[in-house]
């Protein structure tokens, strides 16, 4: 049980570090202070900080405290830190490379149940009453297509793109570009894509996804 608690605390501390909470100081608060904040024993907090140290996220200096480590440029943390600033244009270019291929794969690998899940997301998106609801179901629609590829790396890559698209810059762009007319157009394009998937037509699915993303690219970026 103590190890589970330490893992949970380490996960929360890692999230706070990634959010830049202590970046200005360059160090974490004392362990006793953090232990009080989390309501855990000192040895539990010590174990949690040790887990961060093992991951290279922090370094301890005896008598001085626990300091934030500069991420290795080639580490996961370093790569994630750099891509957080990816431009919308670069992100759309990557979507145009990945998503048509994913749609083509889904046309032949999706189960009937998975196609029904895509159809449900499509119907819910078309019935959305506002922009946030539409965006939520639109994201589900696209993610369900990646789920059908049976390629875990490809699916998680798309999850990473979703995180980038949920940043404030992206949301503001989508909000400015949103209109009822455009939502109906997106739904029509989703319908064409869904029809291609249901017919198990790889090339039609690829072409429908490409056409849809080019519409999104045009509406967002001009």
Q: Would you kindly provide a brief summary of this structure?
A:
The protein is mainly alpha-helical and 222 residues long. The chain has 11 helices and 2 strands; from the N terminus they run αααββαααααααα. A hairpin with a 3-residue loop joins strand 1 and strand 2.
Strand pairing plus helix content: what structural class? mainly alpha
Can you tell me the CATH architecture of the largest domain? Up-down Bundle
What is the CATH topology of the largest domain? Four Helix Bundle (Hemerythrin (Met), subunit A)
Number of helices: 11
Residues in helix, %: over 70%
- What is the CATH superfamily of the largest domain? GntR ligand-binding domain-like
Order of helices and strands: HHHEEHHHHHHHH
The top-level CATH class of the largest domain is Mainly Alpha
Distance between the termini: 54 Å
Average of pLDDT: 90
Low-confidence stretches: none
Report the C-alpha radius of gyration, rounded: 22 Å
Shape: elongated
Strand content: under 5%
Strands of the biggest beta sheet: in what spatial order? 1-2
Walk me through the structure.
This protein has 222 residues and is mainly alpha-helical. It folds into two domains: 2-68, Winged helix-like DNA-binding domain superfamily/Winged helix DNA-binding domain (Arc Repressor Mutant, subunit A), CATH 1.10.10.10; 85-221, GntR ligand-binding domain-like (Four Helix Bundle (Hemerythrin (Met), subunit A), Up-down Bundle). It has eleven helices and two strands. The chain has helices at 2-18, 31-38, 42-54, 76-83, 88-109, 112-126, 131-147, 152-165, 168-177, 180-198, 202-221; strands at 58-61, 65-68. Strands 1-2 form a two-stranded antiparallel ribbon. Strand 1 (58-61) and strand 2 form a beta hairpin. The protein is elongated, with a radius of gyration of 22 Å. The mean pLDDT is 90.
């Amino acid at each position: 049980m103590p190890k589970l608690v330490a893992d949970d605390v380490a996960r929360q501390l890692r999230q706070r570090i990634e959010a830049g909470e202590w970046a200005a100081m360059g160090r974490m608060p004392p362990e006793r202070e953090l232990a009080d904040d989390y309501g855990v024993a000192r040895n539990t907090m010590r174990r949690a900080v040790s887990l961060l140290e093992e991951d290279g996220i922090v370094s301890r200096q005896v008598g001085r405290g626990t300091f934030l480590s500069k991420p290795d440029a080639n580490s996961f943390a370093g790569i994630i830190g750099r891509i957080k600033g990816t431009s919308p244009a670069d992100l759309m270019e990557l979507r145009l490379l990945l998503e048509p291929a994913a749609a083509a794969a889904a046309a032949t690998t999706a189960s009937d149940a998975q196609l029904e899940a895509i159809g449900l997301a499509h119907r819910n998106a078309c019935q959305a009453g506002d922009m946030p609801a539409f965006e939520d179901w639109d994201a589900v629609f696209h993610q369900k297509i990646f789920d059908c590829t049976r390629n875990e790396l490809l699916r998680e890559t798309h999850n990473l793109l979703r995180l980038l698209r949920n940043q404030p810059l992206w949301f503001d762009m989508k909000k400015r570009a949103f209109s009822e007319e455009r939502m109906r157009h997106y739904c029509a394009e989703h319908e064409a894509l869904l029809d291609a998937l249901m017919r198990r037509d790889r090339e039609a699915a690829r072409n429908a996804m490409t056409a849809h993303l080019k519409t999104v690219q045009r509406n967002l970026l001009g």
